[in-house]
Amino acid sequence: MTSGTRLLKDVPFVVFDLETSGAAPSTGAAVTEIGAVKVLGGEIIGEFQSFVDPGHYLSEFITTLTGITDAMLVGAPTIDQVLPTFLDFIGSHNETVLVAHNSPFDMSFMKAAATAHSYQWPDYKVIDTARVARYVLDRDEVPNCKLSTLAPFFGSPTSPNHRALDDARATVDVLHGIFERLGSHNVTTLEDLMQFKRKRQRRPID
């Protein structure tokens, strides 16, 4: 069985979240925390968490939003020191699939950091739980697809709080809730999931 036709229950997923010092790498913002959870067959098989020294002071806005202070980052490794460890935790791009909520944001920071420090970012498949949620949920169920909305909707015991590991844990519960919904759409393999778009046109969720 090829990687494209693996059953979802047989695929290791690494659900990750970043906290950053700003909105985009292009503005000079950088990663301040990485949190990740590896799951297989609905079970958690590993977790990863690290603060990251962004190389500059944090704004008051970011500290208020995340609760991360400059003092908490003193002595933290830099992103070029964290990347090898994180990539080792993720595993091979031929096996592991990455998952993030609003994944373009997180992936932009990871790819920018890899490029800046001459790392070859592996060609991982990436699942965006926000995007897939928009296909399996209707507006009469949830008003939007923010993580803070979906986590309680799917019964997550973890409240998203703009801390990387907690947000990753909440996203795991959202992912598993989405997987339960996908069965009714005949989505059972990784290939199905990567190609999945709801065929029926309904009023979109924000």
What does this protein structure show overall?
Strands 3-2-1-4-5 form a five-stranded mixed β-sheet, with helices on both faces. It starts with 12 loop residues before the first strand and ends in an 11-residue tail after the last helix. It is of the alpha/beta class. It has eight helices and five strands; from the N terminus they run E-E-E-H-H-H-E-H-E-H-H-H-H. It is globular, with a radius of gyration of 17 Å. The chain has a single domain, classed as Ribonuclease H-like superfamily/Ribonuclease H (Nucleotidyltransferase, domain 5), CATH 3.30.420.10. It is 37% helix and 17% strand.
Q: Could you say what the CATH architecture is?
A: 2-Layer Sandwich
Enumerate the strands of the largest sheet in spatial order, edge to edge or round the barrel.
3-2-1-4-5
Secondary structure tally, helices: 8
Order of helices and strands: EEEHHHEHEHHHH
Q: Major β-sheet, in short?
A: 5 strands, mixed
Shape: globular
Enter the CATH topology name. Answer: Nucleotidyltransferase, domain 5
Uncertain spans: none
- What class would the helix/strand composition place it in? alpha/beta
- Rg, Cα atoms, Å: 17 Å
The CATH H-level superfamily is Ribonuclease H-like superfamily/Ribonuclease H
Q: Give the class-level CATH name.
A: Alpha Beta
Number of strands: 5
Q: Please indicate the percent range of residues in DSSP E strands (runs of 2 or more).
A: 15-25%
In the residues, how many domains can be counted?
1
Question: Percent of residues in helical segments?
Answer: 25-40%
